[in-house]
Amino acid sequence: xxxxxxxxxxxxxxxxxxxxxxxxxxxxxxxxxxxxxxxxxxxxxxxxxxxxxxxxxxxxxxxxxxxxxxxxxxxxxxxxxxxxxxxxxxxxxxxxxxxxxxxxxxxxxxxxxxxxxxxxxxxxxxxxxxxxxxxxxxxxxxxxxxxxxxxxxxxxxxxxxxxxxxxxxxxxxxxxxxxxxxxxxxxxxxxxxxxxxxxxxxxxxxxxxxxxxxxxxxxxxxxxxxxxxxxxxxxxxxxxxxxxxxxxxxxxxxxxxxxxxxxxxxxxxxxxxxxxxxxxxxxxxxxxxxxxxxxxxxxxxxxxxxxxxxxxxxxxxxxxxxxxxxxxxxxxxxxxxxxxxxxxxxxxxxxxxxxxxxxxxxxxxxxxxxxxxxxxxxxxxxxxxxxxxxxxxxxxxxxxxxxxxxxxxxxxxxxxxxxxxxxxxxxxx
Length: 429
What we know:
Blueprint: H1 12-16, E1 24-30, H2 34-45, H3 56-66, E2 71-77, E3 80-92, E4 99-104, E5 123-124, H4 129-141, E6 149-155, H5 157-165, E7 169-182, H6 183-189, H7 199-213, E8 218-222, H8 226-246, H9 258-270, E9 275-282, E10 285-295, E11 298-306, H10 316-329, E12 335-337, H11 344-349, E13 351-362, H12 366-400
Parallel strand pairs: 4-6, 11-12
Antiparallel strand pairs: 1-2, 2-3, 3-4, 3-5, 6-13, 7-12, 7-13, 8-9, 9-10, 10-11
């Protein structure tokens, strides 16, 4: 974390001692209507390095659905707004024993949050990012009416550093590494995208492309207007859900309100050029759809739907992403980002990118320490039970001549690459 913008602040002790040389003021109250908030949000957005998930189309669509329960945090410096954040709130328990948690650009409701915000953060003017994060967390978790925890979905290491600098306890509840294709580097290299893939992946894509071309020309096309883009969401969603249902899982498009959210988002964002719907066809036969976000020379793959067959030589996902990457390589985009979700195909098609995680931030008090002790005891019991179960499985496997294997993923580290140009500090779905 870089504290250059915070003047004298160099350690967490400065925050705990209430020495705040940046002198930011914060107020939190009911969120205004989208139409009332829009001018202020857009003005601040133009002075920020924010991600697509803080763009006005995303925020407005989310706020329309949850406005009655959302609060707005406004952070100012010498009377000028330098940061904004929208907060959901959820209580567990009854009466005076209820525990309240605050959520950054989320609600705490599992289904409502399936829209999956990523690269989450406070919307802050350039140069105020670190101070704004610390100010918000301090306000949420200190003093009267404080929350028991601040839940920060899919944030990066900057928010974790802010929590530590403010003297709070923080833990990662889950984490996922993004995967990126650096289009600028490919242009400088000059040999094309396929040449930087492994020989196995390259061979799979070329073989699948030849098989598809036997049906007719293989091409990728973009929706030409908002109405067509919204219409393409329907076959995309049907293919997406069919793939998940085949595995006995409910896909995101099966969640109430999910389709409506994205139909509204696509219609709203289309005029700003910040979404695209792509269709890949072999002859006249569609083999897949991609739904991407476009933001400040960044392309973010959000979701897709593909036509799968019994012929495993056909790789609709690999072929579709290859064509999409080549399409943006011929344009002006800097990066093609597969975003969070560690999957084998992402490893095959891209390089490791930033790590995002759900961060839980709590006051460093006795209750938090007791809760941490309880989690450790719980986790140790789970490990013991898993080892016991694995031992029983191994004994059974030996009796029947089977084999048992286990895979323990490494803990992902923090990447230096930032797709939004900020200073450095599955299933094909």
